[in-house]
Amino acid sequence: xxxxxxxxxxxxxxxxxxxxxxxxxxxxxxxxxxxxxxxxxxxxxxxxxxxxxxxxxxxxxxxxxxxxxxxxxxxxxxxxxxxxxxxxxxxxxxxxxxxxxxxxxxxxxxxxxxxxxxxxxxxxxxxxxxxxxxxxxxxxxxxxxxxxxxxxxxxxxxxxxxxxxxxxxxxxxxxxxxxxxxxxxxxxxxxxxxxxxxxxxxxxxxxxxxxxxxxxxxxxxxxxxxxxxxxxxxxxxxxxxxxxxxxxxxxxxxxxxxxxxxxxxxxxxxxxxxxxxxxxxxxxxxxxxxxxxxxxxxxxxxxxxxxxxxxxxxxxxxxxxxxxxxxxxxxxxxxxxxxxxxxxxxxxxxxxxxxx
Length: 356
Fold this sequence. Notes:
The chain is α+β, with helices and mostly antiparallel strands. It has helices at about 1-10, 15-30, 35-40, 50-60, 75-85, 95-100, 110-125, 180-195, 200-210, 220-235, 255-270, 275-285, 330-355, and strands at about 65, 75, 130-135, 140-150, 155-160, 165-170, 240-245, 290, 305-310, 320-325. Strand 5 and strand 6 form a beta hairpin. This is Heat-inducible transcription repressor HrcA.
């Protein structure tokens, strides 16, 4: 965020240190941090009154907040974003965490889904949060495509893969489509389908529609485009979102307000059909990305944080994502390298299976 970066540049050394220690104290304890505590840890010897004045200035800038009448402060969402972008120190992956994650690959099974399920369990256990693993879409070569009209507003595309896998996906066809237009669209696609994956076919179709649009009935052309789009935009029929570690967010001392936030978080997850949003989030930047509170529309109600990273197949194409969700006071410095390593681990797993 440019706003957070500009604020950081405007702060002097004392303000930066007070701000950093408030955030670090809050992330460690979950409790507001008071001026008296800070005076014992600051590198510069100053009075509690001076620290309180600095904290008030930071509160005026929107970086800190006073949740109670007491003098203690907690970081706001803007403050956390500024800390993560400008002051966060990311540690190295601990050897014990690496060993636990590596142990998930101990099986020689070809069941990628089962392996990713174990990766999710391990990631949840290592981070003490809730883990997310978006499994890859089915990318086997295709054999045949058919469009079936169900009503004026609903149609079915039947996708037959060369390995025998069959998928049926519902979508909204162009208005006024006819059975003949649907047959024409299917025939046009099937002329190019053999041996190509869905993503490869999408690229070919985009080129062919432009080049040969006059040969196609306008409705059939729209149906081809609509069909290709639905294969990419609705991967929930061919991808799976694994969520593990709900119990990790339900500590014995959790306040009722926190329990309600966690309930909203998992309600959000259970309602989301378009899990491609995780891929969209991951694809917007390289490596690990951190979304705090309402920055992440998936969890806007719960005010949770998401640390997410994409993983790639042997062709260096993003095919899934792994992440950790939890309260905004996550230990970001520790979580980031864990998520990064897990994404690399899953990427190698997928690439190895793809090359067999």
